[in-house]
Amino acid sequence: MSGKGSVRFQRVVRKHGDFIALKGIDFDIRPGEFFALLGPSGSGKSTTLRLMAGLDKPTEGQIFFDGHDVTSLDAQDRDVAMVFQSYALYPHMTVAQNIAFPLEMAKLPKARIGAEVAEAARKVRIDHLLDRKPGQLSGGQQQRCALARAIVRKAGLFLLDEPLSNLDAKLRLETRAELKKLQRNLGVTTVYVTHDQEEALTLADRMAVFMEGEIVQIGSPAEVFARPNSLDVAAFIGSPPMNLMQAEIRDGVPCLAGHPLPVTAPVGTGGIVVGVRPSAVVVGDSGIPCTVDLVENLGDSGILDLTFDGGTARARIGDPTLFAEGQRLHMSFASRDIHLFDAVSGRRLGQDAP
Ligand SMILES: Nc1ncnc2c1ncn2[C@@H]1O[C@H](COP(=O)(O)OP(=O)(O)OP(=O)(O)O)[C@@H](O)[C@H]1O
Ligand SMILES: [Mg+2]
């Protein structure tokens, strides 16, 4: 793939001694895309970002920017700006001096530096804080200062490694929305590492899901959410996670607690795991008998923990005050909301698209 701001990884392996941190990953990032690397701790996300930045080199495989092989290029020779989880601001310098730093290094004229710093600070809304030191800023302001320092470099590629993880919940939501707008306005290809699926789902145009040094699925957040291609991805994406329930097959029909589900099992499959998102569990008078173990009140909605013969499930409900612990009711699922997985391989099984 070519075009300004495209990235390609081709069979990239990274070993640390005997340990294989990346087992041969392939992906393409399109110009201008907001691309998230999502996965549990230790799955290889930061390793991938460091390889992109040139801070680390692959053991095998190749990396291309805009169609050019950059595998052996050092960090300073790549057109990238990186923001780390810890903002790495210089504590003795003011905000303005911190933002100006890459431009001073590049020996730009003073007047030009002043103008660029002012513009970048305005974009991330810290133009009123230019004379402060990092120690006099909130976490969110420090984070925006680090972003401004990345912006002035006008790099072709933005690499962000968990940039919001030091912020409290409210500030994280606000900064997340600002970051999305900023990236849209700048139009610069952005690679964003997170283990927070909600961040990836809300920010990314597309995302790669990492597990144990491999990319297990790539797609838009909507695609990955709607059609997780394995049990692992199904269990990882969505909050609360998808209910995964071992089914019995009777005459080719998966059953839970003896109740047939409105889907057919692909021929020749052994064990089947049925997946249903909590938001798709319908509680009422018909379907599988179950008991309410716990009612969680989330304020504007709620979650029910349900037990049925042979398993447990969670249901998202509108009004938690309508339910009580110990209550007996029934649950059912529409066929379009049912995901089927092979119990042995964990792979998604072909069925009507949900
Ligand atoms: N220098 C190193 N030597 C040995 N192992 C390493 C080294 N750097 C990373 N690893 C291992 O490689 C694996 C991937 O690490 P990486 O930092 O990419 O994970 P991550 O997905 O970013 O996780 P987190 O969400 O916790 O930041 C981990 O198991 C880690 O322990
Ligand atoms: Mg990491």
UniProtKB/TrEMBL annotation:
PROSITE patterns (alphabetical): ABC_TRANSPORTER_2
Keywords linked to the UniProt accession: ATP-binding, Nucleotide-binding, Transport
UniProt xrefs under Pfam families: ABC_tran, TOBE_2
Lineage: Bacteria, Pseudomonadati, Pseudomonadota, Alphaproteobacteria, Rhodobacterales
Family: Belongs to the ABC transporter superfamily.
CDD domains to which the protein is assigned, alphabetical: ABC_MalK_N
Matches recorded under InterPro entries: AAA+_ATPase, ABC_transporter-like_ATP-bd, ABC_transpr_MalK-like, ABC_transpr_MalK/UgpC-like, Mo/tungstate-bd_C_term_dom, NA-bd_OB-fold, P-loop_NTPase, Transp-assoc_OB_typ2
GO function term, MF aspect, one: ATP binding
Domain ABC transporter: 7-237
Name of the protein described by the UniProt record: ABC transporter ATP-binding protein
Gene3D superfamilies: 2.40.50.100, Nucleic acid-binding proteins (2.40.50.140), P-loop containing nucleotide triphosphate hydrolases (3.40.50.300)
Protein origin, superkingdom: Bacteria
